[in-house]
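Worked Example 4.2. Consider the chain below.
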Amino acid sequence: MTETDATDHRILTILQKNGRITNAELAQRVNLSASACHRRVQRLEQLGVITGYAAMLDRRSLGRPTTVFVEITLSGQATELLEGFERAVRAIPDMLECHLMAGTADYLLKLVVRDTEDFARIHRQYLARLPGVAQMHSSFALRTVAETTALQL
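Applying the procedure from the previous section yields the following structure tokens:
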């Protein structure tokens, strides 16, 4: 774990909520000089605590309002099978996340799609062609109750 202090945590908390904040405003909010604040942010970036900056998009306004979770069980656990699956799964469009799991499924995917027809297309073109798949179960989210990208510090 990287050494961070309370000031670093305040900086990170603010940046998670507003990555476009100016350094001057950030410095003021954490009671540092602009140069000291800039050095801290640079240090956090160099340490890999801050891995990047991104714009958060409204999926609904971009025509992808439907979230689908896909549980995948593979036919085996050989390294070659896992690596082949992981290479292939990275090519799926509209996939936001893929996690290797412990539990009933080997992988859990999170996709965003236009509708059930769009998901059927992705299923035919990509999911059904993934190597080593023994079982696949898809679940459609009815409503997102809570969602965040911010880690509690």
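The chain has five helices and four strands. Residues 34-46 form the longest helix (13 residues). Compare this with Example 4.1 before moving on.
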